[in-house]
Amino acid sequence: MKIAHSPESQHFLHVDCITQNRPASSFPWQKKKDGSAILQNFSLSLKQDERVGLVGCSGCGKSTLLKAILGLEPLTGGMIYCEGKRVQPGSVASLLWYRQRVQYLPQDPVSSLPPMQKVKDILNEPLNRLRNTKKDAIYLRNALEQVELSHHVLDKSIAQLSGGQAQRVALARALIIKPDYLLADEPVSGLDLPLREQIKTLLLNVAKENNMGLLMVSHDISILVGLCERMLIMADGQIIEDRPTAEIIHSPHHQHTRQLLDAVPELSLPVGNDG
Prior knowledge:
This protein is of the alpha/beta class. Helix content is about 30%, strand content about 20%. It contains ten helices and ten strands. The strands form two sheets. A six-stranded mixed β-sheet has the order 6-7-8-3-9-10, sandwiched between helices. The protein has a four-stranded antiparallel β-sheet with strand order 2-1-4-5, covered by helices on one side. Helix 4 packs parallel to helix 6. It is globular. It starts with 12 loop residues before the first strand and ends in a 13-residue tail after the last helix.
């Protein structure tokens, strides 16, 4: 007899009809009322081995969606699943299993990482917290080599590094526990063009080498071309296009997508690239 599987168990990550309202804002003497919905009955499924780009203008709901998937804030409605197991905001201990499988790459590591903390301590922190272990210098050196950084930065603080170096340290920190999936929130937006391309290539290589899934958020569609096989176009809290990247680039269905493409007129898909 064939067993029917629920949608949330067929994909690595499944966002099931979630709703997330804006925080209610009112003066003490005013009657409180619910904030409007940023996301409403929003659903999305992501496979473990695919690289997905999520692009949209500021305020469209990209960051809200990432926070929801990370389990950082309670949802107004709906559920998030990781391989069929529900993800709910809670204590560090209750989400330990999830943090071991899904990691986050921030937009601005210079401000999100402790500026005076040494790189070796930053790399050891997730190992201590999630794996209950501390690795030797050779293991940390290997982690840095994966992101093309010299081991000489181990004894430096984040404040002593360039923006590109700090982003590589943030990536090494996310990868050091060997997660199954990486959520990246505009990780190259603060870098100049050559560094953007370097980090983009690095993410592609790391994802392939580790068979790691990737959801990369950007407001710039060109950053995702050549990196992500599948592209999601988001507007006003909804996914308006969800197709292979090549199809969207060559034949956009939605006017908003055409506007995003027009913003980068020199954009072209690399020959022979499926992303």
